[in-house]
Amino acid sequence: MTTSTDHTYVPADAHSYRSPDTGALLKTIANPHPQYQSWQEHLLTLPELCPASRNPGTGSTLSIRYHAPQRFLEVFSLSAYIQAFIGHKTVRDVEMLTQVIARDCVAVLGVAVEVEGCFELPALGQRVTTRVQAQP
Question: What is the rounded CA–CA span in Å between residue 71 and residue 110?
Fold first, then answer.
């Protein structure tokens, strides 16, 4: 394991996590004050992930929530991780996307995670909310 001075965990060995679906790397940063009860919520604006259906539409969001006793998701790798789903051949529906993200976040953080996707599907005239709670 390699640790940099900015407390970023750089997955480089058996403790690393690489998404089996996209190959994208998720990193964490150490909680600099683990003595405090800390919770984190990442609220991401989603890009269009499917070039054919153009879903999810503008205004779609994803929220990732967790208690962070030791580690936080590193925001730059999280952004690249989400981008890796653009045009993906297997993770094609928003429900599976939410489940896969929850699974991967639990794998890298080692704590319970709740992921909620609010997806705009303009071609169908629908808005879908999918919530997944995943345990380590």
Answer: 9
Question: Do residues 10 and 4 make contact, with C-beta atoms less than 8 angstroms apart?
Answer: yes
Sheet holding 71-73, edge to edge: 2-3, 8-10, 28-30, 71-73
Q: If you count them, how many residues does the chain have?
A: 136
Q: What is the pTM of this model?
A: 0.86
- For residue 4, pLDDT over 50 is answered with no
What's the chain's average pLDDT? 87
pLDDT digits (tens, 9 = 90+) for 37-52: 999 999 999 999 888 8
**Own/partner long-range contacts of 12-21 (Cβ < 8 Å, ≥24 apart):** 17/104, 17/107, 17/108, 19/81, 19/84, 19/100, 19/104, 21/85, 21/88, 21/90, 21/91, 21/100
Read off the tokens for 25: 């790397």
Q: How far apart are CA 59 and CA 47, in angstroms?
A: 9
